Amino acid sequence: SKTQLLIKKKILITAGPTYEAIDPVRFIGNHSSGKMGFDIALAAAENGAEVILVSGPSSLSISHPNVRLIRVQTAVEMFDACDSVFDSVDVLVGAAAVADYRPKHVADEKIKKDADSFVIELEKNPDILATLGNKKKEQFIVGFALETTNEIEHAKQKIVKKNLDLIVLNSLKDEGAGFGKPTNKVTFITKNFDIESMPLKTKEAVASDIVNKIIEHYA
Ligand code: PMT
């Protein structure tokens, strides 16, 4: 039933959380399940695209002949995997919840609970979308924005800063939107700041809307 309108298009998609090690047993992570990104990967593949899906730790799997899945742990690994193929892709979709910071020092052994308090110093991770967005050639780049306040304004700032063509805003204030859930409620904002708010849908349906935006770009 799916169209093959993305045939010969190569699409790079990020999904899931990243895990930033503190010591051999602990990490800094977040609540992303990977579902949003995996659903986009499947929708793109079913429309004929050749998909590279770079995912942080997720319990999900995907089986489609058009999808190559690369599993990573950290933001730096996700960045390296994306950077190494970026020049060869037509589209980048950033659905991953990438940690903005990582522990500056990773303890070699499990940290003992002797001290009453201690500080973990963090250093900044590379911003995958901003780095690739600011060196893009013909690529069409779709970012996500996960916000809790001043959602539209923050999303617009991300479009500019990361040189995106389209951003998919989801707000943790909206019931049924965001992490883990089978549904999402998104607002599309184009690089011209055209705004389109969608109703609550399944993540499969949101994924199909996103893929249709990509199809429209090439129509
Ligand atoms: O995985 P699920 O459980 O299905 O949940 C889906 C989701 C909520 C994770 C997804 O819909 C979503 O919103 N993903 C982006 C989450 C996020 O971290 O947003 P942000 O506003 O912090 O980042 C903005 C954009 O920059 C995102 O496209 C992000 O992938 C990208 N980014 C951020 C930081 C960084 N170091 N590198 C990046 O590429």
In short:
It contains 5 helices and 14 strands. The protein is α/β, with parallel strands linked by helices and 219 residues long. The protein binds ligand PMT.
Write up what this structure looks like.
The protein is an alpha/beta fold and 219 residues long. It has one domain: Rossmann fold, CATH 3.40.50. 26% of the residues lie in helices and 26% in strands. The chain has 5 helices and 14 strands. It has an 8-stranded mixed sheet, with helices on both faces. A two-stranded antiparallel ribbon has the order 2-3. Strand 2 and strand 3 form a beta hairpin. The mean pLDDT is 96. Ligand PMT is lined by residues 14, 16, 32-36, 75, 94-98, 100, 125, 127-129, 143-146, 158, 170, 178-180. Residues 11-219 are annotated as: Phosphopantothenate--cysteine ligase. Pathway: Cofactor biosynthesis; coenzyme A biosynthesis; CoA from (R)-pantothenate: step 2/5; Cofactor biosynthesis; coenzyme A biosynthesis; CoA from (R)-pantothenate: step 3/5. One of its GO terms (cellular component) is phosphopantothenoylcysteine decarboxylase complex. Its cofactor is Mg(2+); FMN.
The average pLDDT value, as a whole number, equals: 96
Number of helices: 5
Helix/strand order = EEEHEEHEEEHEHEEEEEH
As residue ranges, the low-confidence spans are: none
Helix content: 25-40%
Enumerate the distinct ligands: ligand PMT
Biggest sheet character:
8 strands, mixed
- Just name the CATH architecture: 3-Layer(aba) Sandwich
The name of the CATH superfamily reads: CoaB-like
Question: Could you tell me the radius of gyration in angstroms?
Answer: 18 Å
Number of strands: 14
CATH class: Alpha Beta
The chain-level structural class is alpha/beta
CATH fold-level assignment: Rossmann fold
Number of folding domains?
1
